[in-house]
Amino acid sequence: MAKILLRKQKKNALLALAALFMMHAALSFASCGSGKADARNKSDEAFFAGLQAADEDEITKAITLLVQARDSKDTTPIIAKRSAETLVLLGNITQKNQAAQILAERFGDEQKLIAARELFRQEEFATILLLTDSISIKDAPNELVKIRLDSMLEKNDSRFDKEYFDWIVSRPMTAEHMQFYSKYIARKMDEFKEKQQEALEKFVVEFKQKIAEQNDGSEMDKSTIPETVGGLEIGKIDFSVTDEQMLIDLRANVFRKKYKEAYASAHGIIEMYERRRIDEHGLDADFTKFHLEIEEQVLSDIGKAALYGADNFGEAATILDSLALNLSEDKSFYAHFYAARIYEKTKKWKKAEDRYLAAMESAADEQKFDNALWYMLSSKMKNSKGEFMKSLGKFGKHIKNPEYFDDIFESLALTLLSDGDYQDFYDVWKNSGAHFSDGEAARFAYISGRLLEEKLAHDDSATADDAYRAVLEKNGDMYYKVCAIERLNITDEEELSRILLRPSPAGTESEPAGKADALLDGYAEFGFPQRVYAEWLLNRDSLSVKSSMNASRFLFNCGLHAPEYDTQSLRIASRTVAALDGGFTKEMMELVYPRFFSGEIAEACAENKIEQRLLFALVRTESFFDSSITSVAGATGLTQLMESTAGDEARKLKLGDDYDILDPKTNLRMGAHYLASLISRVDGNIPVLALFAYNGGLTNVRKWIKSSKKSWAKLKKLSHEPAGISMDLFLETVPFSETRGYGRKLVAAAAMYGWIYEGRNPGDTVREILYAQ
After folding, report:
1. What are the start-end ranges of the H helices in 579-726?
2. What are all long-range contacts of 139-143, with beta carbons under 8 Å and residues at least 24 apart?
3. Other CB atoms closer than 10 Å to residue 757's CB: what's the count?
């Protein structure tokens, strides 16, 4: 479940970031020389004209034009939304508030969020509550719910407790939920203190009454003084925990990874749901018909608490097994799944398999099914390679989303090839029937072809060329395509174009306009590059390929004057093309493999005697041509040099101590010199080994080669220099996943740069980098 949740959180974070950028960036836009559209909806034009007026500080004119665009029935819907959003940022407070209310009333929850942000800044809490009364607490954007709840606190709204509870138990926990957890606890403390104060005041009244009753001067009978009032012990707070508080605490503890505290409360929470079932259906009810009504998020957290917080795993698994019997089939998934994880943790492999199978059978959707199957296959791989192969043969064809299993198959490939289990590798591809993604299908097909060619695997019914042709049929990694081209020795330019561009079938070239095309095209036509990338991020699923590539070309042209747009152009082009199954053009490929900083790269290559295609590929892979980027590890600039490496290269190039590592020309000189020195130092001067060293370190490369030679010698096969095994198969056994991927990206990119700009056969570039021939 963690993998699915992480993907969703990442996507949500990216969309939120893009929206924030769009709404709060300065209304100042640079033109890249684009002219206005020749033919465009007049209402749409009012939006772009309004942006231009705002850019020139003509706010009254801007508001007039944007209102026209917002309110006209002829305006493209997404442009009407953007008009309404922009109006929230213009004018005086009254105008902003009015615009925010109209935005919230007319459009969806995402636009309500934009309006709510502005209204909250203006402390219009009552207005926010009115505008958000109709939202679904379970489905609305988390930030919008958070603003509503904050407004409830400001207005002391009695609905707060219920809505906060519904929000926190109905969806995955986020930092936004946790921000409210401390507010919730503080609110409860205040409530308890109020109860105590009320009790104390009541006590004083009753105490005075006792005194009045005994005003005859005799000694007071102390036994008549009340020790408790209203069930509250005097001087203490009754901090009894409600059912809702128990659930909220469970969710908060799991989110904070306080699993022991969470697990300690899990049994009580299950008992609470059992009590509710009895209250609703009676003690004598047939509980096979009336299941425990536990929310899915709570079930998932109980499972996590048991997995990570239990001291007695046998007891924890038993609790989950028992829980599964009391849940409906779709909800029993979580109990089975986490029981399986616990049995796996305690190496009870048969029970783990049974529970994973039960989870798969009860999975209500494809995501849950794949999640259980992924963990089962992962468990088998840890336990027994043979058992894994059997399970793959049995269940591999039932995989729903093949991409979800890519890491399993990559790990399997590394294990089998490193262990020399070449026939098993081939059988996984040819005989398992597994449902591979296109990327993994291409990987397994190419490597299987190489194993047949090297006589490391055998199949009387197939040839290596059959496997290579299978690579070219898939929309997989470009690396395996160019390697298959090299193996098949394809030289015909028309065939190369068919393979690398994958033209669309005749009659399918036309494409309908996307829902956001008019907006993105307008930003380009009217010269607003600052808005293009953020808008593309928000709407890339509803844009046509044509519009996306036009946006990329526009930013490419802007980059001639403002290099900060280079990387945005490349990201749009590469992601757009990666999502397609074909229908590419050479122009599209030029945007995917651009030659930014071409003058500086040409000089650096000439100085260090390396091919430009190789340095272009390195810069594209390392930094995506972002000259200002610094990695988490501290690598800097176009060629991503560490500070120590840059210092060494600066001394060798006699740059002095005041060099600027972020200067593109300086960074490229140092990176090219460093790469050239690595090529001269690796065995056989093979460029791909230098690339491995650039990414993973020269010492590691030498260690990997030594180990590979030793393993290969045991096979008594014809040896390839310098690693024994052929260099393309050696790449697949490199222990660092990042370095393996790095090598593939560099080889593929260099081959494409050579083909696009030099007319060089991709196979020749593969041989140049992998084999130095």
Report:
1. 586-592, 598-608, 612-623, 643-652, 664-681, 687-696, 698-713
2. 139/109, 140/109, 140/112, 141/109, 141/110, 141/113, 142/12, 142/171, 142/174, 142/176, 142/177, 143/16, 143/113, 143/176
3. 16
Q: Cβ neighbours of residue 38 under 8 Å, at least 6 residues apart? A: none
313 conformational bin, left if phi > 0, alpha if psi -120 to 50, beta if neither: alpha
Is the Cα dihedral 99, 101, 102, 107 positive or negative?
positive
DSSP structural state of residue 593: S
* Sign of CA pseudo-dihedral 257, 259, 265, 266: positive
How many CA atoms, within 13 angstroms, populate the side-chain half-sphere of residue 305? 28
* Phi/psi at 307 (5° precision): -65, -45
Within 8 A by CB and 6+ apart from 54, the residues are: 27, 62, 86, 90
SS3 label, residue 252: helix
Report the predicted TM-score, pTM, of the whole model to 2 decimal places.
0.85
Query: In angstroms, what CA-CA distances link 442 with 435, 470, 478, 535?
Result: 12, 7, 9, 33
**Which residues, given as ranges, of the chain have pLDDT below 70?**
1-40, 188-193, 195-196, 199-200, 203-204, 207-208, 210-240, 285-288, 505-510, 773
Q: Helical H runs in 346-462?
A: 349-362, 366-383, 385-395, 406-418, 422-431, 438-453
- Produce one character per residue of 374-399: b if its CB has 16 or more CB atoms within 10 Å, e if not: bbbbbbbbeeebebbbebbeebbeeb
Closest CA to 344 of 323, 313, 365, 305: 313
Residue 18, pLDDT score: 45
Instruction: Locate 527 and state its tokens.
Output: 């010269």
**Residue 377 to residue 450: CA distance in whole angstroms:** 26
Beta carbons of 13 and 522 less than 8 angstroms apart: no
Report how far residue 725's alpha carbon sits from residue 713's, in angstroms, rounded to the nearest whole number.
Answer: 9
Round to whole Å and give the CA distance between 596 and 326. 62
Structure-token pair, residue 36: 């206005």
CA 292 vs CA 281, 330, 491: distances in Å:
11, 12, 66
Roughly what angle, to the nearest 10 degrees, separates helices 612-623 and 737-758?
130
pLDDT digits (tens, 9 = 90+) for 752-766: 999 999 999 999 999
Question: What DSSP letter does each residue of 29-56 carry, written as one string?
Answer: ----SPPPPSS--HHHHHHHHHHHHHHT
| Gyration radius of the chain's alpha carbons | 33
Residues paired with residue 233 on neighbouring β-strands, in sequence order: 228
The model's pLDDT over 325-362, given as tens digits with 9 standing for 90+, comes to 999 988 999 999 999 999 999 999 999 999 999 999 99
Beta-bridged to residue 636, according to DSSP, are 630, 641
Tell whether the torsion through CA atoms of 740, 746, 749 and 752 is positive or negative. negative
Measured in whole angstroms, how far is the alpha carbon of residue 749 from the centre of its chain?
24
How confident is the model at residue 505, as a pLDDT?
A: 61
C-alpha to C-alpha distance for 234 and 237, rounded to whole angstroms: 8
Structure tokens at 371: 């999640």
CA atoms within 13 A on the CB side of 687: 25
